[in-house]
Amino acid sequence: MRGTTRKISLPRRFVIDLMRASMGVPFVSLARPLDVRELIAARASLARPPGWAAIFVKAFALVARDQPVLRTLYAQWPWPHFYELPRSAAMVAIARVEDGEECILTERVLGADEMPLAEIDAQLKRAKHAPLQEIGSFRRIQRLCAVPQPLRRLGWWMAGRIGRWHATNFGNYGVTSAAVAGGGELHAIGPGPFVLSYGLVGPDHAIDVVLRWDHRVTDAAPVAKAMTRLGQVLNGEIAAELRGGCASEAKPVRAVVS
Predict the structure, then answer these.
(1) In angstroms, rounded to a whole number, what is the distance separating the alpha carbons of residues 158 and 184?
(2) At a CB cut-off of 8 Å and minimum separation 6, what does 197 contact?
(3) Whole-angstrom Cα distance, residue 92 to residue 125?
(4) φ, ψ at 228 (rounded to 5°)
(5) 209 closest CA partner among 170, 173, 245
(6) Statement: the pTM of the whole predicted model exceeds 0.70
(7) Can you give the CATH number for the domain in which 238 is found?
(8) What does the DSSP 8-state code read for residue 235?
(9) Would residue 22 count as lying in a domain?
């Protein structure tokens, strides 16, 4: 059958490289519905509540602040070892449409546990709607994807094996969701040690959460405890911040030149 040959766009090339770099990570998943009725009530009281992505980015960072294993990644070079980050770095999947093509790019949020929810939400919304050239993370992705494949693969290989490079390029956790397209239990993968995804809020005030992790770093029991703590943070610290009205006014986010 005759088909049509199409060029792979730079954003699609990024996802292809990202999936290739993720294939060697031995992921295990834990899925659990979290009752978030306190959070829902607090969020409903705001005229302009923060998005769920911002909420989960900060909630996980708050949990990881007190559980160092959630800030730990497995590094292979120059010898196998664990590399613990001093603070969390999230890589958030941002869905965009570029040149008529739906694509995913990643925005880095550093130290979300120390940031107001409004500031995190503003950063993610800017990454969603601002021109590509105004977002430092996206400019970097474009430059990387324009490099010839052999050099590109060497860069990905090194970034996935050297602790400091891994932390800079992939962070300690990713956040993604298919909720905007109808939800579903999404078992995403990535080069980082933890990947969190979430679905839609159900009529029972529960939201399905999936946490995937690198089994080389930790086991199921600590992750199950982290999931329990995540639910407590969502209904506790995050809900309290929303009730305080901290998310109603967002500070402007300045462009970062890279």
Answers:
(1) 34
(2) 175, 176, 177, 178, 186, 187, 188, 209, 210, 212
(3) 11
(4) -60, -45
(5) 173
(6) yes
(7) 3.30.559.10
(8) I
(9) yes
- What SS3 class is residue 36? coil
Token duo for residue 6: 């199409």
Torsion of CA 108, 117, 206, 209, to 10 degrees: 10
Instruction: Map 83-122 to HEC letters.
Output: EECCCCEEEEEEEEEECCEEEEEEEEEECHHHCCHHHHHH
**Residue 170 phi, psi dihedral angles, 5° rounding:** -120, -15
User: In angstroms, rounded to a whole number, what is the distance separating the alpha carbons of residues 176 and 157?
Assistant: 23
- pLDDT tens digits for 26-83? 999 999 999 999 999 999 999 999 999 999 999 999 999 999 999 999 999 999 999 9
Strand partners, 97: 102
- Residue keyed to tokens 């891994």: 166
Domain annotation covers residue 86: yes
User: How many domains does one find in the chain?
Assistant: 1
CA 121, CA 55: separation in Å to the nearest integer? Answer: 8
Helices and strands (H and E) in the chain: how many: 9, 8
Task: List pLDDT tens digits, range 216-256.
Answer: 999 999 999 999 999 999 999 999 999 997 544 444 444 44
Amino acid identity at 215:
H
For Cα atoms 84, 90, 93, give the angle at the middle one, nearest 5 degrees.
145
- 137 touches 105 (CB < 8 A): yes
Domain that holds residue 135: 10-243
Largest CA distance in the chain: 62
